Structures are given as structure tokens and as C-alpha cells.
Amino acid sequence: MTRAHLCGGCAMAAVLALSAAQANAQQSTTVEEVVVTGSFIRGTPEDAALPVEVVSSEELARRGSPTTVDLIKSLPVSGPVLGDSNQFSTTAQGQVGAGTVNLRGIGSLRTLVLLNGRRTTPSPGAGSGGVDTNLLPVAAIGRVEVLKDGAAATYGSDAIGGVVNFITRRNFDGAEVAADYRFVDGSDGDYTASLLYGWTGDRADILLSAGYQHRSELRTTERDWANQDYLVNPSGYSVLGQPGSFLPRNGATPTAGVQRDANCAAVGNFPGFAGATPACYFTYVPFDNLIEDEDRYQLFGQANVELSDKVELHVEALYAKTDIPNIRFSPSYPPTSGPNGPGSVGVFTVPISNPGAVTALQQAGLSPGQIAATNNISLTLWRALGAGGNPATDGAQIGSRSYEIYRVSGALTGEFENGLGWETAVTYSEATSNQNTTDILIDRLQRALNGLGGPNCTGNTPGANGCQYLNPFSNAYPGNPALGLTNPGYVSANANDPALVGWLFDTQMSENRSRLLVVDAVLNGELGWTLPGGDIGWAVGAQYRRNELQTTLFSPFQDSRVTPCPVPGVTTCAFPTGPYIFLGQSTPSQLDDSIYAVFAEASLPITDSINAQLAVRYEDYGGQTGSTTNPKLALKWQITEALALRGSVGTTFRGPTPVNRSTNQVTGLSGIIAAGNNFKSVDFPGNPAIGPEKATTYNVGLIFEQGGFRAILDYWNFKIEDQIVQVPANVIATSVAGVGNGTQTVNCSSALRDLITFNNNNTCTQGVTVGNDIARVLSPVTNGPEFRVSGIDAQLDFRTTDAWGGRAGAGASVSYYLQYEYDDFIFNGVLVNEGYDARGFANYDRLPGTISEWRATAYAEYGRGPHNLRADLTFIDGVVDNRAPISVQNETGALQPITFGQKVEDFYSLDLTYRVDLPWDTILTASVFNVFDRDPSAARLEYSYDPFIGNPYGRTYKVGFRKRF
Fold first, then answer.
1. Mind listing the pLDDT tens digit for each residue in 481-502?
2. CA dihedral of residues 224, 226, 228, 233 (deg, nearest 10)
3. Of 644, 717, 733, 599, nearest to 47 (Cα)?
4. pTM for the whole thing?
């Protein structure tokens, strides 16, 4: 079924809904509501055997209307999530600006995200973390329900960690406009606006919403803690620098030793060593952003119509888009390939005729005789652009991302004359991810170094007939534009033409498009058999899902079938690494799969105080993946009117995505510890033979409610087998090359050596090849090791309407890990790494990433008349960096230990929000977030903080208004 047909069907359904709404406006009949999260049986209460947490739009308003990302990050049951820009996290590179949910910290792909109880296609970008929560219709959301338990028996794949169901408003009458502005020091601030319209008749209701959110760019230079000296935190520095190091030669014979560019320190770099080789460590962080400039738009509409006394029609449509037009990257990437294949060291050369060459040798202090004997220079530890910025842009490479979604859903719900309930639904969603990333072409770079560069070059005479030289030395630029530093060695006559620099680059443009069609059918009712507690409720159903993923490439250089070699037009070479100095390649692809499922559920009121729920689901993926059956049992015992005990046990699963099963691959970049944390290309191929992952989960909890007081205590446990995972690039590299500053020798006989491409045309010589020689790492997808996660949730709430003449409330919520243990990781019969405990560790170099032992939130609020004051406290426990401590060479070459970020300290934020209800249905709010202006805790990462613990904002101020008509 094509999108046009589906959208046409949606439009027809909308017209029918509106027509029926007008025709039936004067009639008054109510269709019984069907329950949403956790069950398909009507009448299932929110406080049943399943642990469901509800956050209403009213509560969000009292908290200062946090963004979707901020809301998710504030949930103690949610582990690290995307949302704040972090281009240096491999998992975030293809998803900058997207949002995810990560219940229990076991991975966002193991949390099922629903909109009004139905699926939405995951974001199709490289490194997708699942459904992009930033594309949901924020203005229309009425409440968020979080099911904190495995739910594959009810919902199918992806619900291992639980379900987050975003539910739109119902029965809203009138119109509402809202806007807010958040002042952020160092940026233009964040702001939002929304419009909501609703109409409710006797037998129908309509809701329309439009929303807009803007996040302003926040540069790294606006936060002192993000820019650390090399000897404090070397993570944001690269040994492949600009200025760099170079070797004067005559032919292949050196005329002097390796020289460090004389202006290294003056333009903000660190003059150090790589072993015995002088090096100029380039800091790229000042050219980047902590937060990117982002614009988000959402349009949503829904209609509910009672077509008869027993039949209701629901239709909804969503369009949303996120634009990130100016993502800032390093002025140029470091070379991992050169004209002759893989390599980073000495792969490019410069003739002495290059305008900057003699000047560079003179500034380095070479004698006239040495200069006269030199006819070429090997660029030893170097990159094309760095401290001088990119003169073709505003200093940095500029890329872009955009994410877009169309979603339509229609459902008919009804009841037969015998009381049997039924529901049929069709949901179609289509998401698109467009990514533009620039990189330098190898052949163009070497031609420009030789004087044959530029868009207007004709002939073969260097520096003539429109041909230009690229000056690769620091005398080509006046200073560091990001740090505001002046270069004393600048020679204006040697400056590079911005047009020439722009010509070096090609833009990798790719479009990933995913489509998801879901057809549901459910029957529910009562068996007619009565237990001591009442009638047995049941539900049975079937589901069909079809996933499609299409990848389109828009540059012939990006397609490995068209341009496999460094020189465009050449298709046969010893090492087909492609034409880019850093980025990898891909091929267009068209992938799809179909999943068939049947399921059943029963509610058994065993006694007046004991209720049981049984569920089972069968899903078939076909092919090599096969099928899976998952049962679940949940019980609730109402011991007294105030005290209840609940528990559940079941199996759950996650099936592979089309990307997991693809033979294609995408490329990212990651700081490789074995290479002194220098960034290297990482290739992520799929695996057609990948199987589903399986999990066993159970939960036991107590609920106590008395008056306005409520306390909930839950113990939860997950055992996950055959997890679908990429073999971590750092684990592979460390297994082969160990840990060090990049000068340590590698083990060429390692069983994982074939997953690494080395410099020097992939040559590995025992005792000679070092960690810095790593050019690329292959990170294949596989069914990985078993891991076990368990913990405790505790929640306290108290509310009263009689507190000093007003209303008051207070509460706290805590989630604490008791266990997060991994078994040995074995890949293709080889031990990749031994098992470990991830709890309380940063896990930057291994699965699953940052795992704080506990997270907590607390609130207190008081309201009187139209006034309300609320305080919210968010706490995230610190972690220990499990990576081995490192040492780097100082200015003299001596080793100096690095202790920065060995313990990432706790982070907390206190937020205050004042709200007043004014006449004319107007509400004003004023908030102060992070009242104590806490900086994020130090971490040995590129930005010097862990975005999964702290945030870069500092203290911010927000004002907003809401007007209802």
C-alpha cells in the first residue's frame, strides 16, 4: 500500500468523522472507554498488577513545562538518553537533535514508545535510538504513561524495558495559545510557541494543535569548563594537528629531523611529543557547539466520533520536522587514508615550490643549506585545516541534519449485541532522516598541495592556468578565530584562497527513509465464567507489521560501487578505501521485513482481593530470525484497603531491525583509547543471520495508600540473552593494541586483528606498528553476551487541600541499581573481553555506557488561590571512570599522569517555578532552573563533561504564558 493511498484514506476518514460529528452533535450516548497502557482488556485500572507511572500535562505545567527531553531525563527509571548534542558519542552521531527513552538504562531500543497506544516508526538515521521523541506533538499531549515492566506479551518486540505511551488530550473545548522564553547565558535562548483548538459535542470531539520549539546554538567557548589544557584533559586534542609536524626531504632522504611547526603554541595548540617525534596537538573543541541550533515543528489533528451507540471512530494525523541547519565540526577531519590507501602519518607530501614551504622551514629554524637541499616535505603528523579554521566557512566544517515524520492512524472500536468488544486499527508512519556531512577528497588534496588545485584549474603546470597551491603550514592564516589568538608567523602572501579550500570538500548527502505499516485487530469481553472475585475478562488479537528502510546517496563519491579508490574514475586499487581522507562509504539499499503476531490475555479476579492477568504473544519474523513466543503472569493482592502487593513474571524479546539484518554498513567516528584517544573511523556493518534477543523479567512491589499519602516500592529484575549489539570499537582496538598514549606496540597476532585497518596500507609489523597506526575499526553487529540488571524503585507522595489555607504536596522518587553484570563477550569463538559489573561506572569504552547507581527526584509545592510555587530537585549519582588511568608526554617529552575526571561527581539541579492564574483564563509562569548554577562534573571526554549525568546550561530563567479562549 502506498503512502498516497494511506493518506487519502486518512483524509476520507477525517471527512467522515467531521460529517458524523455535526450530524450527531445533538445525540448523547457514551462509548465505554478501552484502557491503554499495559492491557487490551477494558476496565483494567491504572493501579493494577502492572507498575504504571502517570505524568499529566497539568503536572508538567506546574513544573515549568519542561521539554520532552528534560521530562525524560528527569525520570529516575530512565537511564542515559539522547537529546543534548554530543557529536563525540558514537551513538549520537547520526542522531544529533533527536530524543530517546531508555527505561532501566538497558538501551533505548529496548523501550517501546507509543502514541495513543500505537506504534510509530523509529528514526531511520545511522545509530538510531528508536522513536524520536522530539517529533511527538508536544502541545497535544495530555499525559504520559510509563509502564516500568517488560511488555512483549502485550505489545511485541522492543518492550523489554517497558513502554512509554504519549496520550493526547480528549474533550478539550475552546482554543489555547502558549509561548515561553528561556534565557541561557552565552546563547540567544530557547523559545517555544503552540496553538491548540478543540471542540466537543455530545457524540464527537476534535483536537487540532500546532507547536514550534527553538534551541539556540551554545558554543563550547561560552563555557570555560569545556576547554581544558592538554595536560589537564587531553581528550579534546588530536596528534594529527594543524599546525602539524613535518619531515624535510630530498626524494625519500631526510634533510633534517621531524620539525614541529614554529607557531604551534601561538595559535592555541600544545607543543608535545608522540614518542620521540615532535607533535603539535590540535584542540578542535573550540570550533564545536555544546548545543546545536535547532528548530522543531509539529502539526497534529484527531477526531473521535460515536458512529452509533456501540461504534466509535478515531482518526489522527501527525506531521513533524526537526531542522538542524548548521552543525559545527572540526575545520577538517584528520586523515585516515591517503593516495596509497590506509594511513595517517606521512601520507601527503608537499613540493618545495609550494608558497608556504620555504617559509615553514625558515620559521622552524633550518639552516640555508638544509633548506637548499630540500625538494619536498612529508606531512608527518598533520591535518589540512585546524587552528586557523576553515576560510571557506566561518571557521568550522558545517553539516546539517533534518528529521521528518508523517503518521496517520484510524481505528474503529465497538461492541456487538452480546457485549463482545472489538477494535480494528491501521497505522502508517513514514520517517525521513537527511544528513549532510563534508569531508576532503584525497586526490584533490594532494593535487592542491602540488599546485594543481582549484575549481578553475586547467593543464598540468603548478600554480598556472587557474591552478592553485594549498599552503599546509601555519604561515597561511592570521590566527585562531575560535580562540581569538593572533599568529605571529602569518604571511599574508601565503594565505589560502577560500574558493580553493571549498573545492577540496565533497558533501556526503544521504537520505534514510523508514516506513511502518501496522494493522491491528482485537476482540475483548467476558467469558461468562465467574470466579469469587467476579467475571473473567479476556482479549485476543492479531497484528501485522511491515517495516521498510530505504537509503539513498546523492554523491557518486559516497557510493563504494562507483568510487572505490582514492582517485575518482579509478576502480581497481590494492586498498579500496574510497576517496575521502576520513569518512567511509556506503551503497544505496532497500530493506524490508514483515512480522505476524497473535496474542491473548485474560484477567482473573480470583477473589475480591486477588486479581491475576495472563498474557501470551507469538511473533514470526521469518527468514533466519525465526519466531518467538512470550508468556506473562501478573498478580495483585489487595491485602487491606490501604495495602496491596503486586508482582509479575514473563519473557520478552526484541527482534532485529532491517538495518541489523542488512549487508550494508555506515561509518561513524570514535575516540580510540588505544590510539591515544584520537578519533578514528568506525564502520558498522549489518548481519543477515542476526537473531532476536530474549529476556526474562520479573517485578515484585508494595503499594500503600492512605488519605493523601501514597508509597510504592518495587523490586525489578531483567536477564537479557543474545543481545543485538555492535562489538564495541574500543573493545576491539584495546584487545589488539592495549591501552596507552598511542605509542605502545600492538599485537599483530591478535584474533581480532582482521577487524582493524592499519596505516601503511594495512601493514602490521610486530614490534613496530603502534596504536596510533590504527586507521579504521570494523564494529560488526552480533548476538552478544548475556547481562543481568536488577534494582529497586521507591516512590512517596503526599497531597492535601488543607494546608495553611491552601493546598500542598511533596514527594520523592528513587531508582537504585542492585546489579548490572555482563558475562564474557565472545565473538566468532574469540574472547573479546571478560565479564564485568557496569553499575556505578562510566563505561565509556564498553557497553552499556554511563550507569549511575541511583537517580532520584523530589518535589514540594504549595498553592493558595491562584498562586502556586513548586520546587523540583533532580539528582544523578556520579560514576567512576573504569578506563585505566593514562599518562601523556609534556613539553619535554616526560610522562605526566592524568587524573581529570577519574571520578565523575554527582550532579543535582534545583528548579523553582511560580505559577499564577490570572483573570481572562490566562496563566503566567516564571522558572529558575539549576538555581545554584551547578556546572557539570568533570569527565575525561572531549567536552570535559558527561552529558548523561550533567548538562551544559548552567542557571537559566524561563517565563511563559498560556491563554485560553
1. 999 999 999 999 999 999 999 9
2. 150
3. 644
4. 0.90
